[in-house]
Design a protein that fits this description.
The protein is mainly beta. The protein folds into 4 domains: about 180 residues; about 120 residues, Sandwich (Immunoglobulin-like); about 120 residues, Immunoglobulin-like; about 140 residues, Immunoglobulin-like, CATH 2.60.40.150. It is about 15% helix and about 35% strand. The strands form 7 sheets. Strands 1, 2, 3, 4, 5, 6, 7 and 8 form an 8-stranded antiparallel sheet that branches. A hairpin with a 2-residue loop joins β12 and β13. The radius of gyration is 26 Å and the shape is globular. One of its GO terms (cellular component) is endoplasmic reticulum membrane. This is Extended synaptotagmin-2. It is found in: Cell membrane; Endoplasmic reticulum membrane. GO terms for molecular function: calcium ion binding; calcium-dependent phospholipid binding; phosphatidylcholine binding; phosphatidylethanolamine binding; phosphatidylinositol binding. Its main location: membrane.
Length: about 725
Amino acid sequence: VHFPDTERAEWLNKTVKQMWPFICQFVEKLFRETIEPAVRGANNHLSTFSFTKIDIGHQPLRINGVKVYTENVDKRQIILDLQISFVGNCEIDLEIKRYFCRAGVKSIQIHGTMRVILEPLIGDMPLIGALSLFFLRKPVSILSLILFSNSGLSDTIILDIISNYLVLPNRITVPLVSEVQIAQLRFPIPKGVLRIHFIEAQDLEAKDTYLKGIVKGKSDPYGIIRVGNQIFQSKVIKENLNPKWNEVYEALVYEHPGQELEIELFDEDPDKDDFLGSLMIDLIEVEKERLLDEWFTLDEVSKGKLHLKLEWLTLMPTAENLDKVLTSIKADKDQANDGLSSALLILYLDSARNLPSGKKINSNPNPLVLLSVGHKAQESKIRYKTNEPVWEENFTFFVHNPKRQDLEVEVKDEQHQCSLGNFKLPLSQLLESEDLTMHQRFHLSNSGPNSTINMKIALRVLCLEKQARSPDHQHSAQVKRPSLSKDARKSSFKPQVPVSTPPDSNKPVPPSPVTDSDKKADTAEKSQPPNASPQWPTDLSRSSSSLQASNFSYSPSHLSVKEPTPSIASDISLPIATQELRHRLRQLENGTTLGQSPLGQIQLTIRHTMSHLFSKCSSLFFTSLRNLIAFSEEGSDPYVRMYLLPDKRRSGRRKTHVSKKTLNPVFDQIFDFSVSLPEVQRRTLDVAVKNSGGFLSKDKGLLGKLLIPLASEELAKGWTQWYDLTEDGTRPHGAS
């Protein structure tokens, strides 16, 4: 295959071969000083992970082609894409002392495109200020892992953590001159934000069959959307060849030359999901057009097409268009902290000084920083045994309305689970700052007299700049044909699917907010009969999407179960589930007047206690319910799911058992959240009552929701109260 813009560079391979022993020394240092701490911090079970031997082997990495970008690049930088292949017989031994687990890697294969950026170009030797290396997307990797003991250590986890550490937005930066601003090079401001309206598909292939293939069925389609290292998964639409998702995701774009929007559709099955088609769109085309609303033909399948609406949002350092943006996303009237984003908050966490000792006098804490905006929270890495920690980490938050949202920062001692200080910054202060940026030391409250934290915080307004077009202008986005085989791409892209479905597999995921352009599709969806209502799995507890786009995002293959990403329409209210509940209530009403609590009530006993045994603070909740609505003639199979917002990670979820065929279940279960009293008073309890249904049952869905802010002085004493369940949980009322 000939790529006209990619050149061979055999001289570079000869140079790499000569340098290989020294490259191996650098790689060993990278594994021990960078990747090993990253693996330890990724999971509590990996806290004793270490490499005991690292030998990369004598076979050097090979560069198959080099592409130099000459268009759409800054004149002060040089961008190269290196197509690399590494097939090495290496010896890498690792162990997890905590579980007496040892393993060894006997061979590694890596194939991918590595981007090299030389910037800034300067008028003095060595002419280049710094060198940055990273992968645009996770490379195709094959790793032969030998387990020396019976353990659950997964080569997928190790591979993904290692590869993701070098995948955008993470990068290796090597300064060549001292004057270069390394923090800016490591964590550049994104080039833009891509808003993806994942609307609908038509005429998909039917993959489900019955009676050993004699009877042809339909498909249960869902989508995987990928921009660089940010991965989103849509909800599953059951038994539908023309599914309507109406979901919205927002992704950061750091390097648009050579970066694509990648989408794959699958049919969900109990064992192995079937492929329904793929699509790749060049982001340069989206940036040029600013707005694309088109049907795209799916690749690698005989039929099927996908409807997408793509918006390229420019990051503006002024607030002059903020009111217009807030109006366009309807954030000027609502009071929610979630929804379409009007701005992006970029935060560089540098260091802290003079932190207090924590619980033990004259002992240094293990500080970490918890950052939150609305219901979204991120944590820094832990710095051990120091009251002068240096983090040098970057964080990004999508902001719904900066005029009334705050950035909350808390420094915590990981060892003793106590607060070392905190402060709150109204984002409205950034709107009054020059270039919407603040770079200073912030004084910590509830801390030492001279305790400060050094941060650079920038706000960028997200604007959709419309291009001036002639009346006869027509354009179709450039669709790239996949350069990898379907099997090769799925091996590194498609989530792993377990054989069994988890008990909480009926949690709906919010769709996108309905805009004017989406009303037609939404109307069509509402006209579907009730038995066409989709059932879909639980929401993804990341960032992740990031966003959900955090510094370190896992691919879905990390998850023990396949879960969709919450649409950014809302983190806590579920519009589709709300519509289904309202439809069910109308059926129940049928000309009669429903009571004051039509969805029933839930009783909670909420209090905060101190666990002296583990020196941890805990919040306990007890639940029982009454007068729930019936999902069938036999009643309902209710259970309760809880989150302590903004933490929506899977580890932060609490769930009762399922109570069969009852409208008045009593659970008598204790839910323990390990958080301090000051912290829990800044949280919101998110409670959802759901109907489980049986295997393959369509009687799954939401029975009611409840949101309780825990900012109460009575939390230490506790209280017991009945609360009315509502469709979206935003209007909880105490009944007694």
